Amino acid sequence: MEAADSVVQEVGWPFLVSAGLVRDYTVLVAPDFLVADGEQGLLGIAGGAVDGGPIESRTVRTSSGRLLALSYAARLLTAEDSSGTVADEFGRPLRLVVGVVTDRSRATDPTRDLARAETVVLPAYRRFRADESAYRVEPSHREPMRSLALREPEGLPAPVAVPYAEPVPVPYAAMPDRRRMRPVVSPVLLVFGVVVALLLVLLLLFRPWATSGGCVPASSTTTTTTTTTTTPGVGGAAGTGPVTTTTCP
Amino acid sequence: MAAVLIGSAVLITVVVLGLRWWSHRSARTTVPAPGSGPAHTDLPTFDVVALGTRGSGKTMLLASMYSQLQTRSGRGYYVTAPFDQVVRLNQWFGEVADPQAGWPRSTGTGETRLFSFTVHTEGAYARPLPVLTVNYLDYAGGLLTDPEASGPDLTELCARIDSAHALIGIIDGFWIRRLIDGDLVAKTRMQQIVTTMVHLMLRVDRPVTFVITKWDLLQDIAVDEDERLGFVRKHLMHNQNFRDLVNAHAAHRVVRLVPVSSVGPDFTALDHAGIVVKRPDGELRPTNADLPFAAVVPDVWDQIEQGVDQAELAAVFARLSGPTAKGRAAALSDAAGMLTQAAGRVFGLVNPVAGAILDLAAGLHRGPSVEQQVSTALSARDERSGVEAELRFNRQARITVLRELRSRVDVLEGRLPSSRLGSEV
User: B42, A175 in Cβ contact below 8 A?
Assistant: First the structure.
């Protein structure tokens, strides 16, 4: 069903990420197709939502390449949500992360969709709390979305969700400077040196400045020079240690 | 003609040797001598993963550790982290420190984060001098135990565990307390903690340290801390799986049991339901929170040295006090080669300590007087190579920090002999 040129209406699947008294945060309700493929863990990234914060959006890609859009929000658990305690066994507050999975990103506010999703997933959460150890992820089924979806042009590379960013220190062996730290003669310099030496030899041999003299250069002599060069190998320089085979960028 | 050929060969040889000398010289003068001073991006880096079940105190330990180490407080070093990480750590610590507020919520799925702590000391001209980096992973503990755990967080965690240079096994003091009090649930939980660690630690060949968190909950067991630790250790070693795990590692290296309280002895109490609550007048005074951090580097170094033929290494170190400067320089070079190769076996192709291998040897080697000999030989080599005084000062400052890290662990073992787990039956 199309609403406009740039937006479309579609269906979505509710999901829930939460924890209980004993069990840690996990995906408790997920779209039926993800549960069937055992890929509900993809929704775990929603667990990082800010309590009481705005609705957040992410995209994830299934192993079969299907791109899914997630819209979700987190809030603290209340006494109305569950008959049990609202804290875990260590006295820490529990939270619910409720969301919807759709094929396209939302173009309009999905607040009403999330409210609808909550009514779907809360009974599942109560079942979870009734017997946490026996509970297994429950599949959710398609629901019509009230919000509209972006009509994304096909063929464009879709954004891929990244769980988190991290600083990665550049390892010593991968540093560009490592190449310079080895006192190795550049092959170009070597070739250049050999060529210069050969030119000098030829100059000495033919001595063009001495043509007026009686000396006659040997006309049919061919000189072949073979030069063998070596480069420092393992532990070639004091303190350097073995040269790894890592290719520097 | 023969004379011309000989002459040309000599000329070529002279040119080649000249070029090699020039190239060698320029390599020495344009970049620091190997090991003389890694740039900030070139620091020895150690990846650590703390293995702990839900609620065991991994995140709190992290926040408390940073809080203790962010200033020098009588130490020769302090720790920094990227600004966004500092904000997060301070927020966690602030929430815990507020006696009127509840406990912060637990780490959820999708919140797996790597924290990078860089150890600094005071370098030449009182400038901050980075020494090394330790990376810690924070994650939802349920990932290790939940039968339905899957997805990117678990994939990331498993990859980090596989590539970690050291593992920390977190044992929740809360469950030890409950176990001592005769709680049957606690027995199941302790077994879950041990089973998780056995599965992940038994198959790895890298340093492991066991940390008992929430040590403050166990303070009434005995007045003497070592006696208390001995009591808890006896309880733990009573578990066949734990005993086997300890013995498997203790056969190759030192295994420690470190008691830690991220909040200190006067901050919490157990309420009537057995839940840990904050005391209204509680004062936050973390104890030993820096120890798991300090133990990592010496432990990894010990593993590197174990990969070297001990007699050969001792012979090389003995040559450091030889009569000639040339002999001492050669010994230094040989030591660097041996240790770098051994470090490569621990770290793999990308060796994060190669650039600082001699500094690490000077700071962490346990042999009598060897550390001083390495240090002296390095100074002499730096002087001969024309390394600037500033760089030489910085090298000594780094070595001092490494010695302090080693010393911190030694002090623990001296104060609490029960912290050293050995082969026990």
Answer: yes
Residue A247's pLDDT is: 25
Give the percent of chain A with pLDDT over 90.
Answer: 53
| Cα(A132)–Cα(B111) distance, integer angstroms | 22
Q: With an 8 Å Cβ cutoff, is B38 touching chain A? A: yes
Which B positions 151-180 lie with beta carbon below 8 A of chain A? 151-154, 156, 174
**Which structural domain, as residue segments, surrounds residue A47?**
7-150
Chain B contacts of A45, Cβ < 8 Å?
109-110, 151-153
Query: Mean pLDDT of all residues in chain A?
Result: 74
Q: Choose the weakest-confidence range: B327-331, B365-369, B411-415.
A: B365-369
Q: Is residue A43 part of a domain?
A: yes
Q: Establish if A194 belongs to a structural domain.
A: no
Confirm or reject contact between B24 and chain A (CB < 8 A): yes
In angstroms, the Cα distances linking B12 to A194, A227, A245, B215 are 6, 8, 30, 73
Task: Report helix angle B357-364 to B291-306, nearest 10.
Answer: 110
Asked if residue A192 belongs to a domain, the reply is no
Over the stretch B269-321, which tens digit does the pLDDT of each residue have?
Answer: 999 988 999 999 999 999 999 999 999 999 999 999 999 998 999 899 889 88
Q: What is the ipTM of this complex?
A: 0.81
CB contact under 8 A, B42 and A175: yes
Q: What is the rounded average pLDDT for all residues in chain B?
A: 88
Count Cα atoms within 13 angstroms, Cβ side, for A100. 31
Q: Which residue among B27, B114, B351 places its CB closest to the CB of A173?
A: B351
Number of domains comprising chain A: 1
Is A99 a domain residue? yes
